[in-house]
Amino acid sequence: MSERNAVEQQYEEQLRGPSGSSGATSYVLHRAKPHLPPWCGVAATGLAGVFGHARWANSAAAGVGLTLASVALTGVTWWAGKAGSQQRRLHSAITVAAATSWCTAACLAGPATGPLPDLYLMGGPAVALSWNVRVVMRRNPDAAGHGSDSGLLEKVGLARAQIGAAKVEPNRVTAPVTLEAGRQTNNDVTKSLPLIASALDLPATAIRYTPNPASARRGELVIVPEDMLAEVIEWEGPSRLGGSIAEPLVIGRYDDGSPLRLWLPGDPEAGRNSTHLLIAGVSGSGKGDTALNVLTEILSRQDVVVWMSDPKAFQDFAPLRPGLDWAVEGGTGTEVMVEAVKAAIPARTRWLGAHSYRQWVREAAETQTSRDHTCRPDGQPCGCPGMPFLVAWMEEGANTLRALGDDAFTGIAQEARSAGIALVVSLQRPSYDQMSTSTRASLPSVIALGCDPRDEGFSLPEAVLDAGAHPGAWGNRRPGYCYLVSPGVPDDRYPSPGRTWHFSSRAISAMEVLASWAQRNGASAGPVTAQAAAGVAGQLYTGRAAPGTPAAAPATAEEDDMDHGLLVDPEDADLDPEAELPECEPGDDAPLFGRETGRKPSPEEARRLFAKALEEFETEGRMVVGPKDFTDWCDAHGYSRPWVSERLKEAALEGRLEPTSKTGRWRIVPALADA
């Protein structure tokens, strides 16, 4: 654009000229000025022939000198033109060769000898006019811009590619690119993006290329000359307080200043699917601020509830905790929450299907007063309470995956979207040794922050990386810089970097106010979701605290959930605490030093004692148990561990226990769940 403006300005200056005269004669002279140099060259060539003939007529030595000078001048012209285009180089060399050849012949034989005057009168104007044509074409702004762009592409190995008319926006230039048919593909452009950035003296993340899905040789080149993300902007509050979760969540800005938007529920009218979200980035990349941006936007909406697990004891989210519907700090509580989400999926999909919803929409959160969404057979409005959107947030997901297995979220990720549930998983490195491939494939949305260059493929799709995305260039040096890939976001925005708002200590009071607002105005889980959660978690699920009531104190961490080093005897270090206990062997009931012999109670007493043990666990809120949880109980009551292992199997057959996704762990079915 700057070169084009310079050409136009130079042309206008040539037209105005230094003269201040007016009238038709002055106008014609000023218009003719740019075209005079070639004609002056023709006249100078003719005069050179006349004066040269007067001095060197019939001189053999002059003929040799003039011939050598003609060849040398033509060669110098060809050599000097290598920096320009091939067309201009050839045109200049032919012009010099023709002029010097005619001048040499005129000097030796005479300008009026034989065909020399006819060649001069016909060839001279033709050569001059050819240069006039070049001047006219050079003044064409479109031609000038095209030539500049072609030169750029030629430098990076994309000669013969063409750039169309560019679309100029604030801090963003988008230009269509057409490659040479049969010789170049869109892959050639993606491989040349670093070279284009080098030619323009811009960072690699400022150049992106979006291929046209309908063509292998067409696409759009996007250039963002100024990085508008360098300035840190602090969070100033939610974008739509009191709005719907169906509206976009504004969590930051792109590098051209436009808002960074994210949608969680789907929209059948817009053709957008519901989604799950992965937040990934190395330590120090701004993952905490990004999570706060997403969570504050969610809590500011009035038709959504959040269940959150944070093994870091809500270090970053403490001011927002009162606004959460359910919050646990890892360990057994997280196991129970995962099982509760699994139980809520069929209950919610059953409700949506009964009310003629193919997916969750904002009308599903309202009282059902429409004939189109009724569960009554007669078609009359049913008046059922609405069912809000549910966000299941697993902070520090790597911790939970280590405890429950790499496929702990697979079932939820594959089935929850149709139930109006969004799964949010936050972790540093979403590699396949931490998260199963099935789970990763079921998380269609990702906020990819800075990472190790070798881990880029774990966070972003290959097509987005090919288009110019490069989160490995940031690492932890630019907190908050990210790429957003999600339904509802235009495809050409995927490789565009953004940056989330920053949360400083000054934001704590505003977050506390937001949590208080959510307590008073936010949605409750609703009878469908609450009953499903209570049926799994029992007393562990209480729902959001009432306004003015502090959030429930975190449960004391269990000893087996804490990491205090080696707490077993060396000879027992290799034992698996989750493995089933072996069958009784002779000698198991032999008396120990200072203790009485272990005994086998009667079947009736066994059922009573074990039922009492399960009731104790349920009262304490420990709804997921395994063999290791009964170690202290066995010691306290004097029973052998093989006996307990048998009772666990019997309780599972009787329906008092349900297996979980982790082998050797059982979920207690609340005693009053059926009621």
From TrEMBL:
Gene3D superfamilies: P-loop containing nucleotide triphosphate hydrolases (3.40.50.300). The keyword Nucleotide-binding applies. ATP binds at residues 281-288. InterPro entries: FtsK/SpoIIIE/SftA (IPR050206), FtsK_dom (IPR002543), P-loop_NTPase (IPR027417). Residues 1-22, 583-604 are annotated as: Disordered. The chain crosses the membrane at residues 60-81. Residues 257-458 form the FtsK domain. NCBIfam families: plasmid_TraB. PANTHER family: DNA TRANSLOCASE FTSK, SPORULATION PROTEIN RELATED. This is Plasmid transfer protein TraB.
